[in-house]
Amino acid sequence: xxxxxxxxxxxxxxxxxxxxxxxxxxxxxxxxxxxxxxxxxxxxxxxxxxxxxxxxxxxxxxxxxxxxxxxxxxxxxxxxxxxxxxxxxxxxxxxxxxxxxxxxxxxxxxxxxxxxxxxxxxxxxxxxxxxxxxxxxxxxxxxxxxxxxxxxxxxxxxxxxxxxxxxxxxxxxxxxxxxxxxxxxxxxxxxxxxxxxxxxxxxxxxxxxxxxxxxxxxxxxxxxxxxxxxxxxxxxxxxxxxxxxxxxxxxxxxxxxxxxxxxx
Amino acid sequence: xxxxxxxxxxxxxxxxxxxxxxxxxxxxxxxxxxxxxxxxxxxxxxxxxxxxxxxxxxxxxxxxxxxxxxxxxxxxxxxxxxxxxxxxxxxxxxxxxxxxxxxxxxxxxxxxxxxxxxxxxxxxxxxxxxxxxxxxxxxxxxxxxxxxxxxxxxxxxxxxxxxxxxxxxxxxxxxxxxxxxxxxxxxxxx
Lengths: 264, 190
What we know:
The structure holds two protein chains of two kinds. By secondary structure, chain A is an alpha+beta fold. Chain A contains ten helices and eight strands. Chain A folds into three domains: about 35-95, Electron transport complex subunit B, putative Fe-S cluster (3-methyladenine DNA Glycosylase II, Chain A, domain 3), CATH 1.10.15.40; about 100-190, Alpha-Beta Plaits; about 195-264, Alpha-Beta Plaits, CATH 3.30.70. In chain A, α2 (about 35-45) packs across α3 (about 55-65) and α2 (about 35-45) packs antiparallel against α4. Chain B has one domain (about 25-185).
């Protein structure tokens, strides 16, 4: 019995002595920590997984506190943590828009026909090695072999009728499909924006018309009719400024090619 | 002379990483650049040298007289954990850049088995205080040598055309294996 007590006293005493030593040294070597940073750090999960791209939760908290990372930087904590962090950081950091990916091509099998039949490797990444960059007549459009589908970890992209389509609800805006698309067709669009230009063709109107029944010809009708000055045509391609867009839908109504589409 | 033999054998012949396979986690984790590797090596040297002296003192003057030798592991871990905390505090204050680059591996020195391994070997070989300190220093210097060598090699292999399947950790493990074979050459010294 006394052996147990002595053992407990020895281990406890050692621990206590070390605890005193550490607390004294902790005061002596104290480094002032940003109050915000400490609070943010408390909210983060603390498993130091590195999923955010920083060295650990401490580094991530620091980046959020000094504003170089968004409130939703932690993919593990997700939305609930991001909301709490946004509260600490004030509304400026909290006004983060949810983004979703969008494949900017509406040229499906009927509207944008193929130039030749291809039955080789079924992957977009081999297309640059084929004549004219793939079977599709339009050199900008979606190839439909689904490299983005393979890249998506959330089952949010599927090829429908020869064109990849993103499921807006399932998309978590991780950006993997954006990197996977060899034609750079996938853009991040705010979750709430209804209208998008469903084309990436920078060809002149006449050339676009030759290869696609719906592609943007850069006629500027949308630009002239937009009440919010949100649509502009550059390089024969209309582009919507999502910060200015009021979701009125006039551009979509006026578009002669029906290439500005309502997403939902 | 005996101390010198202990130091050399701990650092080179029985290199803690390359022939005893202890402390592999930071060896693989923090060996991406020579600078952080040297920082890690220095931190380990500080922790191991101090911890082996304190552990040896505690063992000889507390645990043995009270007949509590069976408690050595838990007491040693206590001391090591406290020391690592202390080193972390000092680094955070004095060299914040190094603190950041070591990241999560700094608190992980606590669980670096080369630290506890050294303290336990000291006891096993019934080393006195001076021998323990020298052994601790030699062992951690061996760790430092190994990790810096590894970092140097890794900095170079970055520019090499490594086959796809060997990229990343596999090539590092292969390198570690080859280094380990090379270090067996030191066995001839003794």
